[in-house]
């Protein structure tokens, strides 16, 4: 069996366990001779092409970006991709390197860091390093579980989600969430609980992989995942972050004022929604941390940014051409009413956090009764 990582022969010793295809096949190293690694199959199975290889416990020195990855960045730039996922980053420096290549390619894509290495989840400092360097974190449970072991995976997932929420970074939970639906039209109860637990912990998104890429029931899998996620949101609310517990992150006076007004207005009332005028999405990300159970409408005149904001929990991007920096409530409400977004809510908090996004010198938050305004519009 051949592979495209020749350095492996320098990084394994007899007794090591190699894991192929997310650990579905396991090999025990018996001897290393020149450019050959002799192994014994301890867990067998069918192996197809282009499958991954890991060392049990982690420690491989493979770079986060291969030559093929660097070529793919130019392809992503050409098709104007919203996001580029980086596999196996070791630290924040790997993400910053990828960002420099993305910018050099002329792309405005955001970066999704796929957390798959044991060293990234070995301590909170390492988690925070990669979270703060990334635009989105993906809990890539396949390769991560291979490296740290399945017994450690639940704790790592929960801690990653918690740190992402604390640091204001969107997070995706992925891999084998509905694995049985590759072959079956209905999920198992365990899969239902897996999705619900991730939603309850505060994940922004849940993701399907082989279920839709190669499964027999891709449409059914998407519908089932959406049904379970929406049911979980109705059954139990995700924990909202407490802004007053993170003074270093929310240090600007304008942020405190905006957060105070926003959090005071809501009190977990699902009949209240927020319309946030945004230039770069930072304020929308912030608001989604504190109001995971309310609708947030992100109004932007940047279509690319609107696409990127879809990953945020509870956020509905709306492409909106502002007339000026002081658009009246009527224009905003008219746009939302045209989009059919003002049903089943009685008040709307309209906000623009310019100082937080560093695009202006003032912040505003004010509450508008929906029925009163929509009656005037009609």
From TrEMBL:
<keyword id="KW-0418">Kinase</keyword>
<feature type="domain" description="Pyruvate kinase C-terminal">
    <location>
        <begin position="257"/>
        <end position="366"/>
    </location>
</feature>
<dbReference type="InterPro" id="IPR001697">
    <property type="entry name" value="Pyr_Knase"/>
</dbReference>
<keyword id="KW-0460">Magnesium</keyword>
<protein>
    <recommendedName>
        <fullName>Pyruvate kinase</fullName>
        <ecNumber>2.7.1.40</ecNumber>
    </recommendedName>
</protein>
<dbReference type="InterPro" id="IPR015806">
    <property type="entry name" value="Pyrv_Knase_insert_dom_sf"/>
</dbReference>
<dbReference type="InterPro" id="IPR015795">
    <property type="entry name" value="Pyrv_Knase_C"/>
</dbReference>
<keyword id="KW-0479">Metal-binding</keyword>
<keyword id="KW-0547">Nucleotide-binding</keyword>
<dbReference type="InterPro" id="IPR036918">
    <property type="entry name" value="Pyrv_Knase_C_sf"/>
</dbReference>
<comment type="pathway">
    <text>Carbohydrate degradation; glycolysis; pyruvate from D-glyceraldehyde 3-phosphate: step 5/5.</text>
</comment>
<dbReference type="GO" id="GO:0030955">
    <property type="term" value="F:potassium ion binding"/>
</dbReference>
<keyword id="KW-0808">Transferase</keyword>
<dbReference type="InterPro" id="IPR015813">
    <property type="entry name" value="Pyrv/PenolPyrv_kinase-like_dom"/>
</dbReference>
<dbReference type="InterPro" id="IPR040442">
    <property type="entry name" value="Pyrv_kinase-like_dom_sf"/>
</dbReference>
<keyword id="KW-0324">Glycolysis</keyword>
<dbReference type="GO" id="GO:0005524">
    <property type="term" value="F:ATP binding"/>
</dbReference>
<dbReference type="GO" id="GO:0016301">
    <property type="term" value="F:kinase activity"/>
</dbReference>
<dbReference type="InterPro" id="IPR015793">
    <property type="entry name" value="Pyrv_Knase_brl"/>
</dbReference>
<dbReference type="Pfam" id="PF02887">
    <property type="entry name" value="PK_C"/>
</dbReference>
<dbReference type="GO" id="GO:0000287">
    <property type="term" value="F:magnesium ion binding"/>
</dbReference>
<keyword id="KW-0670">Pyruvate</keyword>
<dbReference type="GO" id="GO:0004743">
    <property type="term" value="F:pyruvate kinase activity"/>
</dbReference>
<feature type="domain" description="Pyruvate kinase barrel">
    <location>
        <begin position="1"/>
        <end position="222"/>
    </location>
</feature>
<keyword id="KW-0067">ATP-binding</keyword>
<comment type="similarity">
    <text>Belongs to the pyruvate kinase family.</text>
</comment>
<dbReference type="Pfam" id="PF00224">
    <property type="entry name" value="PK"/>
</dbReference>
């Amino acid at each position: 069996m051949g592979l495209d990582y020749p350095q492996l022969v320098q990084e394994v010793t007899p007794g090591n366990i190699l894991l192929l295809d997310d650990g579905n096949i396991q090999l025990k190293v018996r001897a290393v001779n020149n450019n050959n690694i002799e192994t014994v199959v301890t867990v067998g199975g069918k192996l197809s092409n282009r499958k991954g290889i890991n060392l049990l416990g982690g420690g491989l020195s493979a770079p986060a970006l291969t030559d093929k990855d660097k070529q793919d960045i130019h392809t992503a730039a050409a098709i104007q991709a919203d996001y580029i996922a980086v596999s196996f980053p070791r630290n924040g420096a790997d993400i910053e390197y990828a960002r420099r290549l993305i910018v050099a390619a002329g792309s405005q894509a955001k970066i999704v860091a796929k957390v798959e290495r044991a060293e990234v989840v070995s301590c909170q400092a390492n988690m925070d390093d990669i979270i703060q360097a990334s635009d989105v974190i993906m809990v890539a449970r396949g390769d991560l579980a291979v490296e740290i072991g399945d017994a450690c995976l639940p704790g790592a997932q929960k801690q990653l989600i918690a740190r992402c929420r604390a640091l204001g970074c969107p997070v995706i939970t992925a891999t084998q969430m509905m694995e049985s639906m590759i072959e079956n039209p209905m999920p198992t109860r365990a899969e239902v609980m897996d999705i619900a637990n991730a939603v309850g912990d505060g994940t922004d998104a849940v993701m399907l992989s082989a279920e839709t890429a190669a499964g027999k029931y891709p449409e059914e899998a998407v519908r089932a995942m959406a049904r379970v996620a929406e049911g979980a949101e109705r059954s139990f609310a995700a924990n909202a972050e407490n802004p007053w517990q993170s003074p270093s992150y929310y240090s600007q006076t304008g942020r405190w004022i905006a957060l105070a007004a926003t959090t005071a207005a809501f009190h977990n009332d699902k009949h209240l929604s927020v319309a946030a005028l945004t230039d770069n999405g930072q304020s929308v990300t912030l608001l989604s941390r504190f109001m995971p159970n309310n609708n947030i409408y992100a109004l932007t005149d940047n279509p690319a940014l609107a696409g990127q904001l879809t990953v945020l929990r509870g956020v509905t991007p709306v492409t909106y051409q502002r007339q000026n920096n002081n658009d009246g409530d009527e224009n905003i409400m008219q746009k939302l009413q045209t989009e059919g977004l003002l049903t089943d809510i009685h008040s709307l908090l309209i906000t623009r956090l310019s100082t937080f996004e560093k695009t202006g010198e003032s912040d505003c938050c004010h509450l508008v009764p929906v029925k009163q305004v929509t009656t005037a519009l009609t």
